[in-house]
Predict the structure.
Amino acid sequence: MTQTLLPGIQAARVTTPRITANVLERPATSKDPQRTVVFVHGNVSSSLFWQPLMLSLPADLRALAVDLRGFGESETLPVDASRGVRDFSDDVIAVLAALGIPSAHLVGWSMGGGVVTQLMLDRPDLVASVTLIAPVSPFGFGGTALDGSLLVADGAGTGGGGANPDFVERLAAGDRTEAAPTSPLAVYRSSYVAAGFESEHEELWVESMLTTVTGEDNYPGDSTVSENWPGFAPGARGVLNTMAPTVFNTSGIVDLASKPPVLWIHGENDAIVADGSFFDLNQLGAAGIIPGWPGDDIAPPQQMKRQTRNVLAVYSENGGLTTELALENCGHSPHLEHADEVRRALTEHIRWA
């Protein structure tokens, strides 16, 4: 059995009116509650992925990482995707309240970036600064034009129906092998990190992925039939549907009266969040992998990074401070692949917040 907690990391159960959540902590030498950093993980992962970065932070910073519902060691509860990612962000808000944290420096990875930006919209008073690491686009995952508008009204090709069923089965079965390209280990190597990256904690990352609860109420969620290509649209339950463009849009951060500083970190070789991601059904159609693609006029691949950059540009024009850090030879996990650069950027960002 893989040891999941690294030396220096503590785990605790935090009970709130919404959820009993598992929270990892790297304690601080400071007792100042304003010196708290809260990490929010991405899809098919858990708080375990944050441990090296938490341990590397200055000693006066309290580092916490929350397992979202249906991931890690937190309570398994259904995910109401009709609320976008609010089931997740409201859970994080509840954990902050239970721990008596008046505001925090929030760090979100991938889907966790969407959770953090939703929290910015709903409870800006809780946010001291924001760091987005390889975040989902502010317009959700798939199905939008560059300006964020829906390609088709029902969001066809996005949500729970887009998951690879063999990958889901291997997650549910606890597959730790590399027997198939759809095994969690193979997906980690091909998609979570850039080619050639090696980690002494690779087994731990796979253990983290395997904590994902599968099913229609959790990962990946349900789907509905669509008359539009490729024949399905988002459902109302489960993880992938929370990021469907029909329910997820955090571009409203540009209009916040008080704008916390935002640091955006991303890898140049990100296979998941990209301008033409092969996790985007329209990109797979354009590449001929899924037949019947109706063409670029109807179903263009989503320009995910350009959307994020455009929204952050408006955020800056409206008075917010934004910083972009693009890392070469880096995939979807900058905090693993370029740990020192991410730590330096995050620490400096917090210092000036």
About this structure: DSSP finds eleven helices and twelve strands in the chain. The longest helix spans residues 304-317. The two ends are 41 Å apart (CA to CA).
